[in-house]
Amino acid sequence: MARVIVDVMPKPEILDPQGKAVTGALKRLGFEGLTVRQGKRFEITVEGDEVTPDRLDEVRDAAEKLLANTVIEAFDVRVENA
């Protein structure tokens, strides 16, 4: 079975309070110079050995309609090799 990864991140102009909190915690723990933006990762298993272009388009459509709020989030879809 093939796997498709959908990464969803807040758009750059959108505030990220979770990322800001993690950034602050890292700084308090002594990790300097790190800035975090927190997002979501979805792993989708696709039947068959290969992900066809049509199937990848279907996953992109699902990501746009359900997995990401495209008003405030951007997403990236990629095939993960086993």
Automatic annotation (TrEMBL):
Q: In which pathway does it act?
A: Purine metabolism; IMP biosynthesis via de novo pathway; 5-amino-1-(5-phospho-D-ribosyl)imidazole from N(2)-formyl-N(1)-(5-phospho-D-ribosyl)glycinamide: step 1/2
Enzyme class name:
ligase
> Can you name one GO molecular function term for this protein?
ATP binding
Q: Does the keyword Electron transport apply?
A: no
Q: Supply the EC number(s).
A: 6.3.5.3
What are the BP-aspect GO terms?
'de novo' IMP biosynthetic process
According to its UniProt record, where is this protein mainly located? cytoplasm
| A GO cellular component annotation in the UniProt record | cytoplasm
Alphabetical keyword list: ATP-binding, Cytoplasm, Ligase, Nucleotide-binding, Purine biosynthesis
Q: Where in the cell is it found?
A: Cytoplasm
* Entry function: Part of the phosphoribosylformylglycinamidine synthase complex involved in the purines biosynthetic pathway. Catalyzes the ATP-dependent conversion of formylglycinamide ribonucleotide (FGAR) and glutamine to yield formylglycinamidine ribonucleotide (FGAM) and glutamate. The FGAM synthase complex is composed of three subunits. PurQ produces an ammonia molecule by converting glutamine to glutamate. PurL transfers the ammonia molecule to FGAR to form FGAM in an ATP-dependent manner.
Q: Which NCBIfam families does this one have?
A: phosphoribosylformylglycinamidine synthase subunit PurS, PRK05974.1
According to its UniProt record, which protein family does this protein belong to?
Belongs to the PurS family.
User: How is the quaternary structure described?
Assistant: Part of the FGAM synthase complex composed of 1 PurL, 1 PurQ and 2 PurS subunits.
UniProt name for this protein = Phosphoribosylformylglycinamidine synthase subunit PurS
Q: Look up and give the organism this protein is from.
A: Propioniciclava flava
